[in-house]
Amino acid sequence: MTRRLITHLRHVDLAVPDLRTQQDFFTTTWGLTVEHSDSGLTFLAAEGSPEQYVVRLRESADKRIDLISFGAKDRADVDTLAGDLARDGVQLVHEPTDLQTPGGGYGFRFFDNEGRTIEVSSDVAVRQHRAIEAGESIPVRLSHVVVNSADPEGTVAFYDKHLSFALSDTLVHPRMGSMMWFLRTNAWHHSMAIARGPHASLHHASFELRGIDEYMRGTGRLLRQGVEKIWGPGRHLAGNNTFSYFLDPHGNTVEYTTELETVDEDTWHPHLYDFSNPEVSDQWGTANAMNEFVARKSFNDPDKGLFVAPPV
Predict the structure, then answer these.
(1) How confident is the model at residue 2 (pLDDT cuts 50, 70, 90)?
(2) Which residue, 18, 24, 135, 256, has fewest beta-carbon neighbours within 10 Å?
(3) In Å, what is the CA distance from 70 to each residue of 118, 121, 173, 186, 189?
C-alpha cells in the first residue's frame, strides 16, 4: 500500500448568509458546542472529539463549502505532501505555515480538481474532551463528509493519486452506472465519499453518535423539534452504518450515524453494490424510499466557492 500521509478527517467549514440561525441549529438542535468565536466566525466542537472543532461557520453572502480539513502525522509529512502536490501541478492556496486557527498547528491549503479548498495540518493542540454518556444524543465526532461531483471519476482519481485515499466500496445502478465512491484515509470505512451529481456541492456532513440508542434518541429529538427529515432512519450496507438525514436552515444535509464499519486494510476488497436493491440503501427497511425528492435535496445548491479560497 502506498504510504498515506493523510491520517484522518478534522473538520468541515461552511459559509452561510445567516450565521446566527445556523449556529443556533448546530448548538441548540444538533448538539455541538461553541468552542471559539470571532467576528463573523464560529468554531463548533463535538463533546467527544479531541479536535478543536469539527465545524466552522463563517457569515457570507454566498453559501459554500469554505474548506474540508484533514490531519497529518507531523510537520515533515505536511511539507512532503505540499511539495508532492506542487510538483504534480496542483494549485496551492498557500504554502505550509503556522496556522492561526484555534489549536494552532502547521498546515497548507490547496484546490482539488473541482476547486474545493482542502486543508492539511499537523501539530494542532488536542481539545479537552469527554466520554459521551449513555443516552446522551449528541455527536461524538465528525464521521465523514460526502461531496457531489459533476466529474466523480476524475475526483476519485484525484484523491487516489494525490492523497492516497483508498476505495472501500462503490454504489452502482443498472441504468445510471457508478453513483457513489466511498474513500478511506484510515481503517474507518470512509472519511469521504464522492457522489455523482449535477454540480459540485456538499452532499452531506455526517456526525457519529455513541451507539444505536443515542442515535435513535437523537433522530427522535430532531423529529419532535420539527427539523425536516430527508431520509431515514435506516442502516446502509456500504459501511454498515445507520443513517438519519436532516436539512439545516440553509438547505445543507446533515446526518446522524453510528457504528460505521472499520476494515482490515490489508485484506479488504472493494464491493460493487447495486443501489437498485433496497437492502443496499437500507438493510433494515425502516427508512422512506430513496427517490427523486431525496436525491434533489442531496444535490444541494451549486457551490459558489470553487477555486476561490475563503478569506480566513
Answers:
(1) low
(2) 135
(3) 8, 7, 30, 12, 16
Q: What angle do CA 290, 292, 297 make, to 5 degrees?
A: 90
Question: Is 169 among the domain residues?
Answer: yes
pLDDT digits (tens, 9 = 90+) for 16-61: 999 999 999 999 999 999 998 888 999 999 999 999 999 999 999 9
Query: In this structure, which amino acid lies at residue 270?
Result: P
Assign residue 24 the CATH number of its domain: 3.10.180.10
User: Which pTM was predicted?
Assistant: 0.97
Find the mean pLDDT for residues 85-113: 98
User: What mean pLDDT is reported for the chain?
Assistant: 97
Query: 450565521: which residue's cell?
Result: 19
Strand-pair category, 253-257 with 201-208: parallel
- Tell whether 311 is covered by a domain: no
Overall domain count for the chain: 2
- Residues 203, 108, single domain; the answer is no
Q: How far apart are CA 49 and CA 130, in angstroms?
A: 8
Do 85 and 151 lie in one domain? The reply is no
Residue 129 placed within a domain: no
Nearest to 45 by CA among 268, 273, 207, 274: 207
Looking at residue 205, the DSSP 8-state letter turns out to be E
Q: Are 307 and 111 in contact (CB under 8 A)?
A: yes
The string of pLDDT tens digits covering residues 206-220 is 999 999 999 999 999
* DSSP three-state, residue 108: strand
Full domain range(s) for residue 289: 141-299
Nine-digit cell at 203? 452532499
